[in-house]
Protein: F-box only protein 39
Amino acid sequence: MEDNSEPEQSSWAHLPDVCLRHVFHWLDDRDRSRAALVCKKWSWAMYSGSLWRSRTITFYGRPSRTRTLEFQSALWYVKKFGKYLEHLEINLSNPYNTAFTQKFQVTMKGLLSHLGKCNSRLVSFSINYLELDRSIWKNVVRAQFIKNLATFLKRMSKQLDYLNLKGARVTLEEGCELLSSLSCLTNKSFISEINIEDFFSLQLPVYSSTLFHQTMSKFHSLVILTFNYNCISNELLDILQEHSAHSLCALNIKCHIHDPHGQVVWGMSWANLAKRAPKLNVNFFFERVMKHDHLARILLVEIPVRSISLRSCYFSDPDWIMRPTLTNLLPAYWHVLQKLTLELNNGHELLDDELLQLILSCKKLLFLKVWAFLSVAFMERLLQNRAERKCILTTIKVRIYTARQETSEEDRLLCDIYRKFKYLIDSELNYFVITYPMV
Structure:
């Protein structure tokens, strides 16, 4: 007898579209392409816009057989699915010669050109660590890339809400050209977040540039601005007060030893901005700027500082005396400071008492990260004070430097301390403490 019944279908054939898209969401490009060949329904799922809203494209500088098609696949992706993009991040990893940067520039020209024509949804664009000041960028290639990027930003200016050009390392004129592209259509930009940390070349006194001030005056609704201290001036603070005080929530400021940071900024300028922008929090990140007199010129009492990070980056200098910073400077923020990061090579200076007193004085301090020469007893004293509710820390991350290679005794003491405060640590703290030989 002939069997005319339909072959039994897999349960996958009846999977609802929303579930199928969720499965595709977890697949990489190659697996998605293969899955799309299964049937028409799966092929349609492949072209669901929700799968292609966010994209990270990384170009690796070091050649390998598995990475030879990166440039072609990046273009293929944008031509196929670029119209769905809402968030795009492009990373450049270890570019190593002029041939690579030239190929990257040509690829980006096609990618940005096509995206500028087909996309009306992009709200977030990030392109990190271009390092355009390196010799691997020929002048003509660099100029062409900046021109293409400026054209793209101009086309996207009405829809972009977030721009990250961290590590671009451009000249003052190039940087202002790129930033001005966001406002050239209407002479105003309402983008809410910009990251221009390490955007300008090293050692540029951007703070004194009229061109930079004119460029920044075009931004009228900034919420978050991330940049370097060499951009800070009374003029910039006045501009932010005039145009973005109603929206401004965070200034993330990096201060590096090789960037100019000796300019005079008035406390009154900070006070006026803080008064007009009541939601403002300022986060400072210092790298190898450790001298008290330098820090005192920057960390004015009028600044609403939420977070401070002081990193020596394993360097040591006898002029870096941290005691006055911990006892005189940072306590001024006792009512606002919530996050403190200290990475110190302080072998010449014991700071247990000063650091503990600072922590206890900061009534809103929630996060503590310390890499420094400390005694193990410091941890017991800190946890005892936390147990007695004399501070409100919720995160404690400590690396105790020691001048000895053998740390078994310190490790044993830390284990004893953990057992003593086990209930507190397990129930209330994000806690991580280790010893680290510095020999």
